[in-house]
């Protein structure tokens, strides 16, 4: 259950170098390397195309229609963090705009991942502050009810602990638990390593059927070719 | 992150009497008593009206279109349990039908809460085995890929640990952490205690405006009456 | 634009007899008689099957997650009214339960139509207090922000003025402007009048093709029969 | 592509006895027996619980908001048929009500499956005329544009040819191609045959793990038990 | 209720200078300045990013799948207008394409806001004619049934009167009643005035917590910091 | 019903020149020329704006969460083909990424149309390999279950036979049956022919009301102008 009205100031962030290293691998490769768990639901979409980031999660639990805790979480941001915002109910209001983005950016945040709405998306795009959200909406919010900061949250169906690594790009958002970050980085890097070779083969016309030796298992599974 | 391919056999269930006592209070009152957290998303609907249950959670993580782990979890059921099934991706297939229900019922399960689809709903209704699900579908599933049993899962947006108390009725499904079950039972019972009196007053025509002394705060907030 | 923080106490209700007379005709016939306008979106569903009502609208504009104004509107209810609740944002919280229903019923309300969620649906069903809503949810609400009572509202896509007639049954909810209520009642009654005769003909095997003389216009439109 | 403005009068219906025999097996068992194909999307829901039917399909392609062709199809109904209605665009209007149902029933139709909306659901329920639809709506339709009757249609994602067998119950709707009806009946009957024995075993406490000999494949797949 | 088959030729447009002045403030600031009412639902999305407009509303009520009235409304357009199109039922057809856009643009329209679908979006983008819609679809429409022009309409959940001011950008679409346009412009301008200063402070690292003096109310609300 | 586990190697492709000629006309014009049938549902969206293609369909039926058959279909691709992928159940997983795209492109495929999810969208965009899909998702798939290649499939609600012509652009995706391709090309070209003239007239301020001679039919339908 969620603990309301608390801010945890000391969190154990994943190793910085590891967290930073995951960005270039991208959400899809990292998700594969994790064994296909940790993905936020695909309704989480970037407000502009092309951003690809990783960072350590500071988490915030919001109340619907109330962005008070986004101001509270701002103070907890350290350079290299990504703010992960969950909400106690489905909500598409615009919790976050250019002023908060200015503040987050000044604190060193790399991105916001929010299971709710955002606004001022043109300015955010100009600022180069990437956001993954479930909606875009002009509707503002009040500042009246407490949530919490740096507690474990469920964001878009995924459990995120403060300090976990977040990897996000045009494909979506993945959460890598801090304890698994190094292992995941290694596995993802290994996956990536022979992609170039594979790509070259496929580009030359070699079929995946042959490259991956699928013909036999397909035949075994009963695949029939009809002329 | 989810650990795949494991079955935890020894879980710490919430106190039986407490878990049982929450049923009669219902999901809405329990949710209030918890401070309005712990609710599964409202797309979770009962397959038939009128069931009202509580029990201790045994959890299972399923792979989409694959119900293998429901057979594995069956063995871990103890009388008074409610099976809580999450899935690694959104899926509406019919993972559960009358045969599994017969087995679950024989093991003492009181209900199934599943963030996916079920089938044989007419027979389940006749059997009196209540299910809360996101969908009803004839589409069956395979038995090919491992998930896990009795790990913490995110089910319909709520984090559920094995041993937590589940309360479900026509209004929805709530998860009460085992550690908070007693406190929640007390708070919910207290809420319920003076409901009868309130209901009598309201039935006699007394207004909530007066009973709850709202006129002054409403006026303070600026409410104006216009004739 | 919505005016916030006001309660209009004196509204012009549609003629009582007319308002009452529309119930037995049902939402579909009334909607036809109106020229197919005035229907609330079909996501508005009854919490139990079989209720069929009409009444004069008292309207309330709610803020998301806040049911304060439902207590305010209760005082404005007169016997024969139906409360129509709109919300300034999409919201599925449970704004309304058995206590408010007791109060509404005591004031003479016949039903609630709410573009949001409700709870305690089992008790509401036992009480025989019908509700049409967009959702059912245990999630309670706060009492913190003003909306308005008896202003024109947009509820589930339909514009409803206080005093309009609401007709609701298993097929959905229709709003009949007060000024058109009598005319609509007459038109709907006329439609209904020869339904019995039509039904008898169709039951005897006469085809709509012949009864409605459709063969010629169909041929003219180019319909071809192929043996 | 759809051919518009045509009515095929002579269709090859699946064998009557076979078509009738599939009803008692139900949609889920039949869907399994078919190899898990042929299912209409699970948003197709019965307007009342408990109906379980099978019959031969007469198909109709409708234009959005226009039920003219439902009158045309009525004439093509033979006893034992189920009308399957597709629409050229997503539409939730109420295309079908009690008058058409009276006519369909008089012609011997057993049910309607419509990828659109219906109305008069209370009367349809009283008449015992089952309908599976994507929506319920009071909104009526015009009679202005041609569709077709007894052409192959895509209904709720499934391809249905005139004469195919439709099986529908609380779990959903399945289409069995006429040519496969006998084979499917046999396979479904065989599946059903040993369900009773299985159910008895499971009811006595035998686990699916043992009954289906799953322990070894689970171990092979790497399942670990942790005490 | 909607009046069908009428075109109001003389509407009272909001003051031109005021209407024009709202564009640069944007939908989110204007929505705030209005007290958070008047917003169209956030499913209304621009067909291309970056457009930011305001103008006076000419309204049109469409029938589903029928764009006849868009030709009728074209004649009522005056330079500086934005066409606001509602539909009597949910519909995603492509009502509007490059030919109509050419006509609208020639008449001086600045944009289209339509609670339905549009097509030819690549050409519209090249023409620089912005559209906010609920869908993009190739599906064309007929010209067969009357709606109305310049009556009050409900568009994407918001009530729009002819002559109101529409403000639209990447964040969404807001309707400002003509009578409130000047007051809203002033309020929005005032809001905007000190945004630059705030932004500078936040960019320098000052926290919203301090700038907005939130620490005390947060503490009062019970916020606890845990090290 | 779908035949599973088969690959048809010899399909009759629509005439190449005809298939190629449809691209420049675009999905909306082609859809009109077909009589408004053959459109895939509008949830099918391009992963990047601006692509406009046509080609001959090679079809593939996928199992949910399983992209094995995409490797099988790759071998069947000939230059000028577009792969059309349907799935036996609603699924948003990322079935297709940059490696498969490399292979498809090497085989001469012009695009992928898939009623499921894709990933690596940034790389696909850089490669200029257009995809129309229902979702974008990092979630990978397994290679375990057979579907089929080059059987008729229902993709996003439209029936597609192998060899049909697919036309896709920013407006959506249309399927033109091979037998109708020439006739459709002619009809679409004819439609397009006088568009330039119409556009010029409309740009000069001529109203559609006059150009299409709508004033009389509108008056006949009862349209009233009110000053």
Envelope shape of chain A: elongated
Low-confidence stretches of chain A: none
**Count of extended strands of chain A:** 12
Largest interface summary:
A-E, 38 and 38 residues
Mean pLDDT of chain A: 96
Q: What is the oligomeric state here?
A: homohexamer
- Which percent range fits the helix content of chain A? 25-40%
Bin the strand percentage of chain A: 25-35%
Biggest β-sheet of chain A, characterized?
Answer: 8 strands, mixed
By secondary-structure content and strand pairing, the structural class of chain A works out as alpha/beta
Measure the end-to-end span of chain A.
Answer: 60 Å
Count of helical regions of chain A: 9
**Radius of gyration based on Cα positions of chain A:** 20 Å
Order of helices and strands of chain A: EHHEEHEHEHEEEEEEHHHHE
Name its key features:
alpha/beta; elongated; homohexamer; 227 residues; two-stranded antiparallel ribbon; eight-stranded mixed β-sheet
Give a quick rundown of the structure.
6 copies of one chain form a homohexamer. Chain A is an alpha/beta fold.
Can you offer a commentary on this structure?
The structure is a homohexamer of 227-residue chains. In chain A, helix 2 packs across helix 6. In chain A, a hairpin with a 2-residue loop joins strand 8 (153-155) and strand 9 (158-160). The radius of gyration of chain A is 20 Å and the shape is elongated. The model of chain A has no long low-confidence stretch (mean pLDDT 96). Chain A is an alpha/beta fold and 227 residues long. The first copy, chain A, has helices at residues 16-21, 26-33, 68-74, 98-107, 121-127, 181-193, 195-203, 208-211, 215-220, and strands at residues 6-8, 45-46, 53-62, 81-87, 111-118, 131-136, 148-149, 153-155, 158-160, 165-169, 172-176, 224-226. Chains in contact: A-B, A-C, A-E, A-F, B-C, B-D, B-F, C-D, C-E, D-E, D-F, E-F. Chain A binds chain E through residues 5-10, 48, 68, 71-72, 74-75, 92, 94, 97-100, 102-103, 105-107, 117, 119-122, 125, 135-140, 143, 145-146, and chain E through 26-28, 30-32, 36, 39, 42, 45, 49-50, 52, 169-172, 174, 195, 198-199, 202-205, 207-209, 212, 214, 218, 221-227.
């Amino acid at each position: 259950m969620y603990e309301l009205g608390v801010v945890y100031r000391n969190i154990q962030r994943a190793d910085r170098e590891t967290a930073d290293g995951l960005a270039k691998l991208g959400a899809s490769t990292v998700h594969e390397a994790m064994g296909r768990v940790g993905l936020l639901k695909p309704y989480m979409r970037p407000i502009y195309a092309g951003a690809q980031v990783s960072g350590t999660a500071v988490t915030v639990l919001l109340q619907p229609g109330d962005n008070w805790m986004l101001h509270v979480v701002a103070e907890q941001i350290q350079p290299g963090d990504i703010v992960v915002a969950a909400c106690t109910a489905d909500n598409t209001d615009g919790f976050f705009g250019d002023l908060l983005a200015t503040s987050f950016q000044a604190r060193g945040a790399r991105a916001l991942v929010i299971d709710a709405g955002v606004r001022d998306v043109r300015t955010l795009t100009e600022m180069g502050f990437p956001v993954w959200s479930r909606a875009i909406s002009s509707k503002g919010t009040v500042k009246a009810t407490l949530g919490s900061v740096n507690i474990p949250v469920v964001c878009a169906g995924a459990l995120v602990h403060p300090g976990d690594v977040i990897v996000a790009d045009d494909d979506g958002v993945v959460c890598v638990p801090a304890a698994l970050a190094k292992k995941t980085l290694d596995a993802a890097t290994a996956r990536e390593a022979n992609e170039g070779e594979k790509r070259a083969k496929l580009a030359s016309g070699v079929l995946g059927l042959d490259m991956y030796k699928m013909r036999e298992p397909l035949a075994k599974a009963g695949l029939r070719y009809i002329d």
